[in-house]
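Minutes, methods subgroup
Present: GH (chair), OT, SY

1. OT presented the first of two proteins processed in the latest run. Sequence and structure tokens recorded below as shown on screen.
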Amino acid sequence: MRTWRLLCLSVLLVACGGAPTRAPETEPAEPIARRAKDVPDDCTQQPGKPPPQPLIREYTGLAAGARCQREVYTIMGGVTHFLGVKCEYCHVPGDKQAMTHRKRIANWMARDLIPSLALKNGKAKLWCNDCHDGKAKFLGAPRDQKWAVEWMLTHMVDDLQGSDGAALRCRDCHGGNVGTPEFSKKVILTDQLPGRREAKGPPTADVPDAGAPAVDAGAVGADGGA
């Protein structure tokens, strides 16, 4: 009987390719870069280091969420990455506080446009990377009209909604549906946004970020920098 069992076991091993072999040893993988959650918080006191520098002014635009001065630079660094640009794309070299047309647009997007929208999946807060994808002029430079329409329909309408949960429609931002007299291509630096369908005085983009000098609204280009 024992001989029979050994014979059956031998047959099974041959049929299955023999006894399992040990997996070949591999070289250890390259160290994984620190994940964001492993990086110390910008505004948390670290042992043996000076306390985080308080905000040097009140920020009301892109950096409105900063809790300390170091976090301002982290936020701005993220924006340069999401737009694929350097600081000088918006800032005046040597005078970071000076207001520029592109800073006005960036602050308007942070103060007015983004709060009026939300991702449909509800998993995260809408931010620059959700649309720009590494390009400052993601609709083309000069703007590609065909691509702009396609992007609006396949991304803006499909992936986003109003912050109140309402579905987006062309007229929410453009004042009217495509092909109607009310339709306007200009949206940037206006107050025609979802949930703000009626004019409510000058748009908040005319209020410069704290610490920056005011700019004459008439100096803004007719295309809003789009």
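2. SY then presented the second protein from the same run.
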Amino acid sequence: MGCFKGVVAVGYINEAIDEGNPLRTLETLLLPTANISDVDPAHAQHYQDVLYHAKSQKLGDSESVSKVLWLDEIQQAVDDANVDKDRAKQWVTLVVDVNQCLEGKKSSDILSVLKSSTSNANDIIPECADKYYDALVKAKELKSERVTVHGSNSTCTKNMTTITTLI
């Protein structure tokens, strides 16, 4: 009987994904019969996007015999979406911390700020702290000049790429 309930949950979840309504998808992910863990209601839209992408990939795979996402695939997509959100939070924190360090002209703090990011701590060379700080100050000044002159979001995006490359 439990297996049947899981199959029913799979049907509901796949229908919700196809509808494109993040709240409906969230509702189905939270069904007790689905038994999907670590679902955060705040991430409903991201779950919808990741699940839709996963299902689209599966539909495009000529070797796939199934055209629906099964519970293990749904759980994997939810887990991946949660990792995405965690990484995004880490990047936002890093950018805020770097900007505070630059605005406060605290060159001595740049090393600890850059190392606080779990994604790149091993890539930071302590001997290069002054160079990191100088490059980030210069990149921030260029960004400020370009945004002031052009007022363009595309410039912001290009400069953010430059800053994250430097980090």
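Chair's summary of item 2: Helices lie at 2-19, 22-29, 44-60, 71-103, 110-115, 129-150, 153-166.
Next meeting: continue with the remaining queue.
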